[in-house]
Amino acid sequence: MLIPDSDFGDILVRRNALSRSARFSVSPTGRLTVSVPARTPTFLIKKFINSSREQIKAQLPVKDPSTQRARDAQKKLLMARAKKYLPYRLEFLARTHGYKYTKHRLSHASTRWGSCTSAGTISLNIALMRLPTPLSDYVILHELTHLHHMDHSSAFYAELGTLDPLYRRHQKALRLFSPSL
Ligand SMILES: [Zn+2]
C-alpha cells in the first residue's frame, strides 16, 4: 500500500506479521518505507509518519518527492505499455513453440527479469519494455523453457538453444541492463 505524502512522495507501507513496532527505512531507489505490525490501521500509520517527520528528514536519505513522483509516473507509463505488449508476446512465443503456461503476471518490484513457478505461472518484469526485442524475447523464451526444466541444467540450455540459437549472446548482453525501476 502507498500513502501519498507532500514531503516524501508516495510512502510504501509494509504490514508485516513479524514486526512488533513501526520502523522506517529507505528502499534502494530512495523511497521511504514504513514497516508496521499486521493490522495496524492506516490512520495510525499516518499519525506515526507525522510525528516522526522531522526525525526522518534529519536521519534518512529519502529522495526528494519530485524525483519520486517522476519515477512513479515513469513506472505507471511502463506498466501501461507492458500490459499492451508482454502478455501478447508471451502468448505468441508460447504458441509458436508449443508451450502451455497456466497464467502470467506483470511484476515491477523485482530484481529479476522474469520467473516461472512449478505451477506454470510466468512473471515478467515490466522493465523488459526497455530492452531491445531480441533480449526481451530471450527472457520470455528462457521462462518458457523453465516450464519443462525447473533448473539451469544442460538439458535446460539445450532446449533453450533450439528456441533462441543466440541465447548465449543475449544472456551476456542482458547484463548491460538493469531490471530495477
Ligand atoms: Zn532461469
What's the helix and strand layout?
Blueprint: E1 2-5, E2 9-16, E3 23-26, E4 32-37, H1 42-59, H2 65-97, E5 103-107, E6 114-116, E7 121-125, H3 133-146, H4 154-163, H5 167-174
Parallel strand pairs: 2-4, 5-7
Antiparallel strand pairs: 1-2, 3-4, 6-7
Helix pairs in contact: 2-3, 3-4, 3-5
Bound molecules: zinc ion.
Residues 142, 146, 152 line the site of zinc ion.
- Report the bound ligands by name, code or SMILES: zinc ion
Q: Between the first and last Cα atoms, what is the distance in angstroms?
A: 18 Å
Order of helices and strands: EEEEHHEEEHHH
Range of strand content: 15-25%
Note the main sheet.
4 strands, mixed
How helical, in percent, are the residues? 40-55%
CATH class of the largest domain: Alpha Beta
Biggest sheet: strand arrangement: 1-2-4-3
Task: Write structural notes for this entry.
By secondary structure, this protein is an alpha/beta fold. It has 5 helices and 7 strands; from the N terminus they run ββββααβββααα. A 4-stranded mixed beta sheet has the order 1-2-4-3. The longest helix has 33 residues. The relative contact order is 0.11. The mean pLDDT is 92.
Name the descriptors.
binds zinc ion, alpha/beta, four-stranded mixed sheet, three-stranded mixed sheet, Zincin-like, 181 residues
